[in-house]
Structures
1.
Amino acid sequence: MFQGLLAELEKNLKRLPGIGSKSAQRLAMFILNDDKASALKLANSIKEAVETYTHCSVCNMLSETDPCEFCSDDNRDNQIICVVENTQDIYLIENTHAYNGTYYVLNDLLSPLDGIGPEQINFAGLQQLISKNKVSEVILALSPSTEGETTMNFLAEELASQTDKITRLSTGLPFGGDIEYTSSLTLINAFKRRYNVKENG
Amino acid sequence: MFQGLLAELEKNLKRLPGIGSKSAQRLAMFILNDDKASALKLANSIKEAVETYTHCSVCNMLSETDPCEFCSDDNRDNQIICVVENTQDIYLIENTHAYNGTYYVLNDLLSPLDGIGPEQINFAGLQQLISKNKVSEVILALSPSTEGETTMNFLAEELASQTDKITRLSTGLPFGGDIEYTSSLTLINAFKRRYNVKENG
């Protein structure tokens, strides 16, 4: 529908996740109708962010600095590593203020059919980091999806000899969730992992 | 949640229509994880489009050239003007290949309570264009909303002495629509404007 630079802008916007043709057209028109300064600010902040951010050479996190803020922070316990799928997960965990160890970003989950093996998830780097820092606990904070489970099984097996403790995030009913709408897999798991209320208070 | 350049990017993305906090975070992370070239292309096409596009001095359309492709095209009948709310509407109408006249973009609809009067919708420019081109028909292609109706009433009244023919787009049931889900206002109007099937074929 659009032509020239507008078509080009639409095409580039459509590459973003969740943005279809109609949305891309709407966004493109908004950007053109917007005051020039704000639109240029957007263009500039994309450029600056893309050109500045890099993968931390220690943990693979996308960061403005290398090493990243967590790897270079002496107040963080580097003998605990929390393994996450991507950088965004780190922000989610940081938001809880419940964790003070370091992180390791896989950037993907194992999926042999898609050609994603141990090399694609930076497994060697994780092994090196564990031996270098004499890590006492590896927390596998991956989604309990098919790929997540595959990856956690792989990591648990391969890392067993390198560290004493390998844990994964608890699974069960989500707070605020409704048993009626819970999948039977989740419910079976929640039954199996039920805990004593008096003990765990 | 984000910091530094990433937070800046999130903030600038959140200004776009239909993009909330969560979407902005997701887009920002996608842009950083994306290959650098594509992300820079997006930034660049925003910048280029914003810096190149301008309002056509004849019809107010957002265009790469001034006058725009329609105003400078001798094959278009400039004695018919189609009045639209914004540039995007022009593209929608062009897509139908059913119209070969010129356009005039109001960029807004009358809304006295929001301080949008005849000056804000470029009314003087429309009047000048009509007398200059000796326009024989003005088509009011505005939405049948409250503001649209107000604007069409205003234009019909004010332009009556300047041109012979002032038309507006037909109103009625939309093709593919279901009478059951049609508003009663639409239905009343469709009854009132019903037409003879034999005559109109």
Note: The mean pLDDT of chain A is 89.
2.
Amino acid sequence: MWHSDRVPKRVDHQERRREIAEALFRIAAAQGLQAVTLRAVAAAAGISMNLVQYYFPTKEEMLRFAWQRIAELGGERAGAGIVEALRTGDERAVLRAYLLGVLPTDERGRMLCAVQIAYFAVDVTRGGQDPDQEALLPHLVNALTDQIRQAQARQRIPAHLDARLEADTLATMTAGLLTGILVDTYDTDQATTIIDYRLDQLFSGIRAAAP
Amino acid sequence: MWHSDRVPKRVDHQERRREIAEALFRIAAAQGLQAVTLRAVAAAAGISMNLVQYYFPTKEEMLRFAWQRIAELGGERAGAGIVEALRTGDERAVLRAYLLGVLPTDERGRMLCAVQIAYFAVDVTRGGQDPDQEALLPHLVNALTDQIRQAQARQRIPAHLDARLEADTLATMTAGLLTGILVDTYDTDQATTIIDYRLDQLFSGIRAAAP
């Protein structure tokens, strides 16, 4: 009986923390990360300041949890497409799923990306030393490199290409497309066209033809 | 005599505005854009609040001037290399100068880029509607497209490539490298290697060989 009492309670706690993180996202997306305080988040979440502090004794702990949650949601957002692509064993589909997974496709995605940029801006002004935040781009580059090497081993991508440099070009291009979407220079369709153009080049081994 | 009285005075005014912008940059780079107030900038510039308000009646006008100054400084930073490259008539050198001109190469460059990201984050949380800020990426894409078309006309880049899409891939990749440098995922040398790798591919018309 001890376990059945305990498990639902722990789930609730985690759910409550996530609700608080969602309130934080709404504030950060609308007013920036500097507007985030325990008090403002409590108000936005419709709960007491005491309850917020029960879960997050300090603002820093709340911000750290919310950042991890953003990364987790980003992973979930991209994850389904990646898992699906991995099942096909088609490296081009896997690379495409990784890259498209970075881009926002709806209003919620845009909001989460805006919050990510807000974290990024704060991190940069502090000297770019937050190890949690630095991990996202290298992680993507490593995943892409693995897929490119695998496609090279199966002779789908020319062996003389530098897998790591190709991954660097794809990952940074997609990071730039993400920011381009947030400032409305590109829409998601245009970004997808650009990604497909580069993947066509990579997999054809010859220069892609103009449409 | 009227002109000689007047001209230096106007120069001083512009110089004073730029000093105020520099004080704003220092605050924004260290604490983010939300820490920028007329009072804080006056203190950082070592001048009176009244004098700041003489030049900038509102915080918004000060922020707008500082943004234009950042763009101007970015243009100056890249400009010398671009003018030099244009003189050679070598499109590859011009493209390279445009792209490397985006990247920070020293501490001051990093500071200005950090401030740019801070502006960007504020812009994004407001919905990405600031026409001044949106202009930077399209401007770069247009300049790159022109150079690629010119190189295609001179048969230095294969004619079947889509100049516009190639420009999109280069500009967004470089925007991603800029943020990668700010979070220390890449240093400037690595970013330069990645840019050269892509330019080699573009100009060779065949796939670049691994080093």
Note: Chain B touches chain A through 58 residues (CB under 8 Å).
